[in-house]
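### Sample
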Amino acid sequence: MGALKPYIQSEDARAQADFYLQALGGKLMSVSTHGELMGAENEFKDKVMHMCIAVAGENYVFLADAIEPVGSGSAVALSIGYAAQDEAREAFGKLAEGGQIRHPIETQPFGLYFGELTDKFGIRWMITAG
């Protein structure tokens, strides 16, 4: 059986990871640069080639500094489900800082406590609580 792990190409992987760690809690698991892994001695040597963070428990997200320009917006959204509404509301509020709320977090007609936003890095998030 496989395990799905989101991999985000970022304009600034370190800043984006710090934002997610502040918003969702968690820790930096590892970070490696092009210089460390590939011996690069050019303008990419200090760029993040691979970073792993654990957020909101044991949910692993990978990030890397993009070598080419990154366009914002996509058809993909990251979703985190919480056991309690107050946890979901807190994470939603922190992720929304500097971003855009698409759907406020509240109980939906279909019964789920749900909110959707695009964070300040252009990543879509869906936050739910049971």
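The mean pLDDT is 90. This sample (VOC family protein) is used throughout the tutorial notebook.
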